[in-house]
Request: fold
Amino acid sequence: MPFIRTVFLVSDGTGITVEMLGHSLLSQFEGIEFRKITAPFVNSVEKAEEWAVRIAKSSRQGERPIVLTTLVNDPVRAVFQSSGAFVMDFFETFLSPLERELNAKSTHTMGRSHSATDKAEYQQRMEAVNFSLAHDDGITARDLPNADVILVGVSRSGKTPTCLYLALQFGVKAANYPLIPEDFERDTLPDTLRPFVAKTYGLTIAPERLSEIRNERRPGSKYAEFDNCRLEVSSAEAMMKREGIRWINSTTKSIEEIAATIMAETKIVRRAY
Amino acid sequence: MPFIRTVFLVSDGTGITVEMLGHSLLSQFEGIEFRKITAPFVNSVEKAEEWAVRIAKSSRQGERPIVLTTLVNDPVRAVFQSSGAFVMDFFETFLSPLERELNAKSTHTMGRSHSATDKAEYQQRMEAVNFSLAHDDGITARDLPNADVILVGVSRSGKTPTCLYLALQFGVKAANYPLIPEDFERDTLPDTLRPFVAKTYGLTIAPERLSEIRNERRPGSKYAEFDNCRLEVSSAEAMMKREGIRWINSTTKSIEEIAATIMAETKIVRRAY
Reply:
């Protein structure tokens, strides 16, 4: 039986920051299974006390729980610090040194990280999401001049989720355009893309993996056959090479890794944090 | 002129965690403008040294730069610590106390936070994204039994971006179904939704804001008229109330806040971290 520890991820906002921090830290420990419980919107002493009861209960059932928090309010944080759990607070640890370095006081405003405070920035993200949906899978060529980046690649190489992630996370307008058998027969890039080669970025994928993914969608089809996948992938790579289009291999990469690589290599300016 | 400080966000992976942590901390300071530069994939001493040169250069141009890092490799981190900048590392600070608490050594594996290490989990996210796209705006009722949640609300109340975020961030299968004038005339929920009321969740929005958003899409249309928006919103709210459907007002909320609230209130189990 694996060793199990319970971890409470406590935030006065959405909990998304503390979840990410917790996930990052805990993924550095192998052989321990973590049972993660998120406690979002803990923005009052009352709510903190409710959670403290639950934490104390969990404490009586085994090893003392671990509590990671991103709480900016001192009285709220204090409730957890006296809960008997092993507590680490992100803001408490880093805000003081930062205040000294900046020679400024922090505002201790709760729930700031993921609030919709910057309306212009928020609008950019929403527009980017709409843009990605409207320009998914080559639906339309209209507005391509306004794209920050155009992803190309064979069907099921990961273009759509990457575009959506670029939009939601970075506020980037990402269109995507499939490279299909007809393009490989003509052996030229689709005419529509011609004027935009400079902002085109490719995704490629191992034919074995592509065949697996396509077989889930259309089992036993020619589309999913390994030989067909191999041919499509090699044709797409040859075409991108000839056109000077940079590409990334998505086979073993997460959407986050693909998106971050594209951001770094194309030097697109992000519109949202 | 506002006071400007340059902040380098350094990671051996995608940089997404350090960007989020940095954003959380810096949003606690008002009146200071931060110029943020992300340095992703800094996974070798050589790459660290290239960035250290850039940091030193920035240092000579004004206030010393702030460097926030999530680096698990000691030699890589050391390069920044001797760069003359104000450096805070998120992992170094928390990993040691956590190692003591867990009585275990951390693996110091680089780029773990957003890698595609857990293939099953990754698959869940991709399936959830495909599900959201296939079930956007009531496109199909097929597979609704497999939805974790079905968002309802008037057109442009924020359903689509919320569904996409739920899929990408939490691996949750979220469908969305619009409430349209025909539904309000009949004054009943669409038949398709009837069997799924228990897992339906509503979005509402202030009519003023709705009219603004719709006017951007279809200027001067009846669809965008304030009176029409007010009528649609009040009809939708009355219908949700009658059916016992919980809802959230999206007007001043970010997608993250809406998504986190839905996760907390419906107690959907997340399938991905």
About this structure: Chain A has a mean pLDDT of 93.
